[in-house]
Amino acid sequence: MTTATDASRAGKTQQFVPIKEIRDGVIVLKDGGYRGILICSAINFGLKSEDEQHAITLGFQNFLNTLDFSIQIVINSRRMDLRPYLSLLEEKAAEQKTELMRIQLREYVEFIRSFADQTNIMTKSFYVVVSYAPRVSAASAVSFLRRDSVATKKTASETSFEEDRAQLEQRLSLVAAGLAGTGVRAVPLGTEETIELLYRSFNPGELENPIRLDS
């Protein structure tokens, strides 16, 4: 049961969250800004030859030089949960027809469990946060304020969002194309993926590198 104290605490907490809403994969901030998030593949830079490393570095440098807006590169490190994998192995062990295979699988499960207890097995995800700040001209602002119809204002707001989203998507496409030149594949997050990522981001116990949307 939610008490008045819990509701008050939740309201105070939400004051520190800069997000107004998430629409069509776009994060709308309270200050009117927009953010889009790309999830990126990784490159094993250490296994590349010297020439390949030089080409990747040069390509990334050229990519940064083409940008006329800010981006944020985020590495999300989380401890990997091996419990589902271990449960699956235990089920497979019970299904084995020979005692030797059952023993080997049980020993393997114990080895993985012991190794996981002694070592933090981490999984890393890479993201690029792209920002866009809408520019509102004085003429358009006055025109919007002079409209009397609530429906008309709502339609104008929807039109403005679509235009701003188109501008943000152009930036996302530009960043994805630039990263592709370095061998990195980047894909925009949808609404559900963005919500899940932000939920983990605002729970420090589940995420070590929270995303800062106000940067």
Distance between the termini: 37 Å
Q: How many alpha or pi helices? A: 7
User: Helix amount, in percent?
Assistant: 40-55%
Summed over residues and divided by their number, the pLDDT gives a mean of 80
- Contiguous runs where pLDDT drops below 50 for at least 5 residues: 137-141, 206-210
SSE-based structural type:
alpha+beta
Task: Give the oligomeric state of the chains in this entry, treating copies of one chain as homo and distinct chains as hetero.
Answer: single chain
Q: How many structural domains does the protein architecture include?
A: 2
Shape: extended
Percentage of residues in strands: 15-25%
Order of helices and strands: HEEEHEHHEHHEH
Radius of gyration: 24 Å
Please outline the major beta sheet.
6 strands, antiparallel
How many extended strands? 6
